[in-house]
Amino acid sequence: MPQAARGCRTGFAACGIANKLPTNIDQAEPENFTMSDPHATPVATTSTTDHLGETDSPAMIVGVFLAVVLLSAANIGLSIVGFGKYTLVVQLAIGTMQAGLVSFYWMHLRQGDKVVILTGLASIFWMGILFVLFMSDYMTRIMVIG
């Protein structure tokens, strides 16, 4: 039977959904066509609730922020004072702690599913490989003065 005889729309008949589509707006179900007021204020758009329903407390957010700032100050102070030949190792450890705090709390890895956690751990593992390779090159060089 041709499409015109069945009343199907062109293009939708092959998918099998042509008979399910309304032919005009009066046949549409009202719950599928809701209009919003463009002048209405959005409800709860600035929530600190993540997709799992857990809320981050402001004290925890400020605490993590202060920890990251204090670790940055320690890193700057260490670069000024110096720690001998292990300054770079300690600064990389401080940077790793900062990255861990940011990813664990602000990127919500502690509330993520298994794939997100696996991706985060794989990136940390890869960064560890790069740090080992970099430090093995740096620590085996002979210092040339002047």
Unreliable spans: none
The tally of beta strands, per DSSP, is: 0
Radius of gyration: 29 Å
Distance between the termini: 91 Å
**Which quaternary structure do these chains form?**
single chain
- Main sheet properties: none
Enumerate how many helices there are, as a single number: 4
SS content category: mainly alpha
Percentage of β-strand residues: under 5%
Number of domains: 2
Q: Which word captures the global form?
A: elongated
Mean pLDDT: 75
> Which range best describes the helical content: under 10%, 10-25%, 25-40%, 40-55%, 55-70% or over 70%?
40-55%
Please outline the helices and strands.
Elements: H1 3-6, H2 58-81, H3 87-106, H4 114-139
Helix pairs in contact: 2-3
Compact summary:
With 146 residues, the chain is mainly α. The chain has helices at residues 3-6, 58-81, 87-106, 114-139. It is 51% helix and 0% strand.
Can you put this structure into words, describing what you see?
- With about 150 residues, the protein is mainly alpha-helical.
- It folds into two domains: about 5-30, no CATH class; about 60-140.
- It is built from four helices and no strands.
- The longest helix is centred in the C-terminal third of the chain and has 26 residues, at about 115-140.
- The mean pLDDT is about 75.
